[in-house]
Specification:
Layout: E1 2-6, H1 11-19, E2 24-29, E3 35-36, H2 42-52, E4 55-60, H3 75-96, E5 100-109, H4 122-141, E6 147-153, H5 175-187, E7 194-197
Parallel strand pairs: 1-2, 1-4, 2-3, 4-5, 5-6, 6-7
Helix pairs in contact: 1-5, 2-3, 3-4
The structure holds NADP nicotinamide-adenine-dinucleotide phosphate.
NADP nicotinamide-adenine-dinucleotide phosphate binds next to helix 1 and helix 3.
Length: 198
């Protein structure tokens, strides 16, 4: 299968790319990969698909949120997660669905924070929950047998140092386990599911 991975050079995307290496992988990122795309810019998503042609599967492992205390959080900061991680992936589906072969798939990425919250995580938790709602409903209406799921990973072992102290009591999950979850999304039969790992 021809599998597009947005964010393939990142920590989560690298885990997905490694686990999906039995496929033809097309890597995408703002400044890395085989093709350039900025998920925050709908026109850039359209241009990427025009350039690429059709793919069997789209995997999204990119998207930024705001981490910070609720006491000082403002609407502008909150919009970061909504406009970037949420709408970036939603637009990837809305635009990309016409560029995916029949019976293809979308596998998005959320995260643990809507089911196991931490301090400073309100924006991330909201975006993650919204992505769950999106795939649950969108799966009903996806055309031509196209499936859609979202992977919800816990903190990766590879990212534990970067988020030191922010995830007390969370047990980091291996890149191997996270990668395999994307195989469920691409090679499996699930649709409309939140696939949790860690
Ligand atoms: N790491 C974890 O432990 C963990 C756990 C649960 C959920 N997540 C979620 O997984 C996603 C990826 O996290 P990560 O830790 O792998 O991040 P990362 O290591 O910073 O990698 C992000 C990747 O996405 C690309 N990217 C970033 N913004 C983009 C945009 N607007 N358009 C297209 N590509 C973009 C980056 O490449 P360029 O710089 O070239 O664009 C990079 O390849 C995030 O949404 C995060 O919330 C991460």
């Amino acid at each position: 299968m021809r599998v597009l991975i947005v964010g393939a050079e990142g920590t989560v995307g690298g885990a997905a790319a490694s686990a999906l290496r039995h496929h033809e992988i097309v890597k995408a990122g703002r400044s890395s990969g085989d093709v350039r795309v900025d998920l925050a810019d709908a026109a850039s998503i359209g241009a990427m698909f025009e350039k690429l042609g059709r793919v069997d599967a789209v995997v999204a492992c990119a998207g930024h949120v705001h981490f910070g205390p609720l006491a000082t959080m403002n609407g502008e900061q909150f919009m970061k997660g909504l406009s970037n991680k949420l709408m970036g992936q939603v637009n990837l589906v809305l635009i990309g669905k016409d560029h995916v072969y029949d019976h293809g798939s979308f596998t998005l990425t959320s995260g643990v924070l809507d089911r196991d919250p931490i301090r400073q995580g309100a924006n991330a938790a909201t975006v993650n929950a919204a992505l769950s709602g999106f795939v649950l409903s969108a799966a009903i209406e996806m055309p031509r047998g196209i499936r859609i799921n979202v992977v919800s990973p816990g903190l990766l072992e590879a990212s534990a140092k970067k988020y030191d102290g922010l995830f007390p009591g969370h047990e980091p999950v291996s890149s191997k386990r996270v990668g395999l979850t994307y195989v469920k999304g691409v090679d499996g039969a699930l649709t409309g599911k939140v696939i949790t790992v860690g």
